[in-house]
Amino acid sequence: MPNHLFESVEGLPGTGKTTVAPLLAAARQAVLVSTVPPQFQPLRRELDQGDNTNARMCLFLSALFTATDQIRRYLDAGIPVVVESYFARCLTTHRVFGAQLEVVLPADLPQPVTYQLLCEPHERLRRLAERDKPMTQWDVLAEERIDQLLAAYRQFPLHQIDTTAQTPDEVVREILSLNAFEVDRAHN
Fold first, then answer.
1. Which residues is 32 bridged to in the sheet?
2. C-alpha 39: how far from its chain's center?
3. Is residue 6 within 8 Å of residue 60, measured between CB atoms?
4. pLDDT digits over 94-115, tens only?
């Protein structure tokens, strides 16, 4: 695995992932890679209307493996990469949602330095209420299982960052103040 910086921004809905990831990519002069590439979006919308957790997990795994090919190409070319969510979110959420698939990830999978954004419940819910995006049944299920999701994330090496009282720019500055390579070594 190249020593080029690969970072993932993880967290519950409303913690700031979608806002922070592109800001972090810009600050790092990195490429922001979508872990659900555009060709997967129509099928994602279709599966989001159903209740087959295993099928939804397979879709997200396929999307992630497709994105991983692109991530590898960038890293091999010496270009840093930032993603909004990676395998930690896919595995965590779908297992908590009831997926029954046993997944063993390849040993040579690029491993990002991962930041888990956290936010006090009242602030996270306020942010969600301000979104101009309808909630899916999966979003509702996530809200019902917040404690389980937080517990499931603990199985992954994550650097936690509280976004509650910070602007997105302040969150990025906090991430930048960390030595990402040192954070990575501390978790491995």
1. 82
2. 19
3. no
4. 999 999 999 999 999 999 999 9
Q: Who wins on pLDDT, 4 or 140?
A: 140
The answer to whether the beta carbons of residues 54 and 47 sit under 8 Å apart is no
Average pLDDT over residues 136-159: 91
Phi, psi of 114 (to 5 degrees): -115, 130
Q: What is this structure's pTM?
A: 0.89
The CB density around residue 95, as the number of other CB atoms within 10 Å, is 18
CA-wise closest residue to 99 among 140, 58, 63: 58
44-49: long-range contacts at Cβ-Cβ below 8 A with a sequence spacing of 24 or more? 48/136, 48/137, 48/138, 49/136
The three-state DSSP-derived secondary structure of the chain is CCCCCEEEEEECCCCCHHHHHHHHHHHHCCEEECCCCHHHHHHHHHHHCCCCHHHHHHHHHHHHHHHHHHHHHHHHCCCCEEEECCHHHHHHHHHHCCCCCCCCCCCCCCCCEEEEEECCHHHHHHHHHHCCCCCCHHHHHHHHCHHHHHHHHCCCCCEEEECCCCCHHHHHHHHHHCCHHHHHHHHC
